[in-house]
Structures are given as C-alpha cells and as structure tokens.
Amino acid sequence: MMNTLYHFVGLLCCGYLSLYSLVVNAENSHNVPSQLASQWAEVYASAAVVNIPRTQQFTLKDDSRDYQLMVKLPKNYQQNSTHHYPVIYMTDGMYSMQVVSGATRFPMNSNVMHQAILVAIGYQKGSKGASSRIRDYTPSHDSSWKLNTGEAKRHLRFIRDTVMPFVEHQYRVDTQQNTFMGNSLGGLFGAYVLLEQPTLFSNYVLGSPSLWFDNKHLLQRFIQNFNQMQALSAKVFIGIGELERPPYTHNKHQMVSDAQAFYQTLHSHPSVNAGTLQLKLLVIPEADHSMAFPTTAIHGLSWLFKRAD
C-alpha cells in the first residue's frame, strides 16, 4: 500500500516538473525573438551607407539631358602629387564601376597592375536604364524596336566634348592612355567608336559586343570599310562567353561567331603586321551573356595594365 502511494506521489512530482519545464521553456521561447528584435533594431539604427573608397559622383549635362558620372581615384593619387594616371572610361556606369572597382582593387593596390583612374558614365537621369542605353549605345536606327535607337553619334560627342575634358581638367590625367570599356550594347558602342574615331582611345575592352543589332549593320560596315582606314595605333581586347550562341542566346543570336568575324576583320588591317594595332580575343569557357563581363574586364585590363615582371 505504501509502495503504491510512493509511486503515485513520484508520478505526480514528475508530471509537475515536466509541466513547469514546458511553461519556462515557452516563456523563454517568447523572449528570444523579443531579444533578437531589440538587437536587430540597434544594428539597423547604427547602419551606414557603404561607399566605394575614393569615389565621387557628378552630374554632367548634354543639352537637356543629365548624366551621372562616377570617378574613382587610385590609392596613391594624393601621395603621388606629380604623377599623371591613365583613365578607364566605362559605359553602364553603376554596373561597370562595381565590377571593375572590385576586380582591380587588389592588383592595382598591390602594384601588380598599373594604377588608373576609373570613370563610369551612367544613364540619363530620370530615364529607365534600358531606354537610355538602347538609345545612346546603338549606332543606327532600327524601326523594329519600340524604344528609340541610333543616337550613338550624339553620345560619342558627349563623351568626347564634355566627359573627357571634365576629367582632364579636374584630375592629373595621362591623355595618351585613355581606355574605353563597354559590354553588350556598350561593346557595340565601343566598336562604333573604334570605327568612327579610332584615335580617341588608345585601348579598347569590348565585352560581348552586340554586333547582331540592326541585322549586323555595324559589323558589315567594318567588313566593308575597315581595311581602307589609315594606320591605327591601339590595343583591342574582345571577350565573349562560350555560350553566347544558340540555344543560349535571345533570338538565336550568333554572338560568338560575330565576335570572331569582328576579330578577323580587325586582324586583316595592315596595322597588325606593322605592330601598331594589337588584338586579343578571349572565348570564356562555360560563360553565357550574363556571366562573361567580369572575366572580360579583369583579363582585358590585366592585358593592358599588368606590370612587366
């Protein structure tokens, strides 16, 4: 009888302790999110905007249009007060600046590459990026597009007459070492600059150029006219993803073969044999159109700016 009573009391105690444990744990479980929420609130309250070091942003006018311009100075710019630096001009400003700034930070800061001023030209303020870049980077008018096209001539004039003089006035620039960098439609625009004003830049890094635009109008102009151009002095790097071809491209664009045809056309110019026109084509393994540019950027700039051993 006593054993039975002791057993009953033991079960009752165990049940009470279990119930107490559940209650305590439940209360604590409610406190955990509350504590975390308080901690997160403190973290967010102390948050600050992250900026790219040594980078300033400006607004430059092209008649009624305003464009954002970002300029990043080299690490040793302030200390080397007499040194003049090459400049890398980039289209698709915000995207290109983030990619190129990150990719070149270590090699330039550690003197593996020559330091350079980075200048990223953005889109027209107040417009959607797509409408600005499609209008500004295309060299011919294609009526099949809903958005405006064919104002590359005006955008080239803006870069030549407004952007470059501004940079050269504000900073210590080596005017003999200007590099153009563009990707996709920006690469198409760079090819247009090379054809129309080849001496404006001494170097070109052209990523995945959209030579398919307007039924390959610009590519055909190159094939027909490039050999007739006078002697050229430039370095041209072309990067293209291995998968920038059907079935991986929109509208079955043959971007790899277009880039190869473009390269072969450039290579046929007499300046190649003279050694004043230097070319490099990189087909990037396993890369599609969305992936190729970061590799193009660092390989192209390394080819141009890597210090000799």
TrEMBL record:
It comes from the Bacteria. InterPro entries: AB_hydrolase_fold, Esterase-like, Siderophore_Hydrolase_D. SUPFAM superfamilies: alpha/beta-Hydrolases (SSF53474). Keywords: Hydrolase, Signal. Pfam families: Esterase. Residues 1-26 form the signal peptide. PANTHER family: SIDEROPHORE TRIACETYLFUSARININE C ESTERASE, SIDEROPHORE-DEGRADING ESTERASE (EUROFUNG). Belongs to the esterase D family. This is Esterase.
